[in-house]
Amino acid sequence: MAIRSAINRGSEIRTKGKSMGRDRSGAPLRLSSRSVSMRAALFMTGRIALMLAGIAVMALGIDVVVKADLGNSPISATPNVLSIGFTAVSFGTFMLGWQCFLVLVQVAILRREFRLVDLWQIPISVFFGVCIDAFMALIGQAGPGSYAASWLWLAVGMAVLALGIVMTVVSGTVMNCGEAVVQAVVRKTGIRFGTGKVLFDLACAALACLCAFLFVGHLAGVREGTVVCAAFTGVIVNAYMGLYGKLREGVRRRRASFAGCPQDGYNETV
Fold first, then answer.
1. Which residues contact 1 (CB under 8 A, 6 or more apart)?
2. Strand, helix or coil at 139?
3. Do 153 and 63 contact (CB within 8 A), yes or no?
């Protein structure tokens, strides 16, 4: 009797185990490929939206730095100087040309490692240029009224610009051209992203000075604020990235703690 009871119980367990993989109609339960594709599409849409938002935030930060009137941010200093020398062309248009030039720089650095998908940087640059002109028109005549206020505007602009940079990096999609050049240098040298950003900004500032003397006749669009942006924007980016890493680790730990907790009503002794 004990043996027969054990056999019957084993058969019952096997029957229940098989039924767990079937719905009420008896058909096996399968994860819908359509639902998986939908989730993947939503995830990618979110990443693209984060990237575009980051580009817009960067454009706003650049315009705030320009309004500080202490010299433009290094990444946009050369287009700004050219817009001063050639007033018939907008700042955003020169920025588009500058971004396309930076794509060529990436090709020169990466060569065969350059991905064709990175050519999406060009339409993104169009969006970037449009945002720069749009935010500049939106800000209008607003600006600092004193030298001290100019430094406050510069600090705010740097913080906003660095935030936009981090958003584009975290999105994991196609980055803005300037940050993509830095990333290419990081891949080839292994230096930290923030450190590469500082070196890139210093090079952009030097090029802007050269263009100012060649096309304007004097040092225009490059001042003490340009040097400060070149030296500290990358530092702010590193700080943001460190904060993001801590927040991400905190979320992972919280999810792991929730996953390890028994569900309500569940008895671990059963």
1. none
2. helix
3. no
Distance between CA atoms of 162 and 46, rounded to whole angstroms? 20
Burial class for 113, CB neighbours closer than 10 Å (0-12, 13-18, 19+) = exposed
Q: How far is CA 270 from CA 155, 264, 266, in A?
A: 60, 14, 8
Name the packing angle between helices 74-85 and 193-215 (round to 10°): 10
pLDDT in tens, 218-243: 888 788 888 888 778 878 888 888 88
d(CA 248, CA 243): 9
Predicted pLDDT of residue 152? 94
**Cα–Cα dist 167/74, whole Å:** 19
CA triple 236-98-200, angle to 5 deg: 35
pLDDT digits (tens, 9 = 90+) for 18-65: 444 444 444 444 556 777 777 777 878 888 899 899 989 999 998 899
Of 184, 194, 183, 191, nearest to 234 (Cα)? 194
pTM of the shown model? 0.71
Please determine, for residue 11, whether its predicted confidence score (pLDDT) is greater than 80.
no
CA dist., res. 95 & res. 179, Å (int)? 14
Indicate the length of the chain as a whole number: 270
Instruction: Single out the residue of 105, 74, 39, 57 nearest to residue 203, CA to CA.
Output: 74
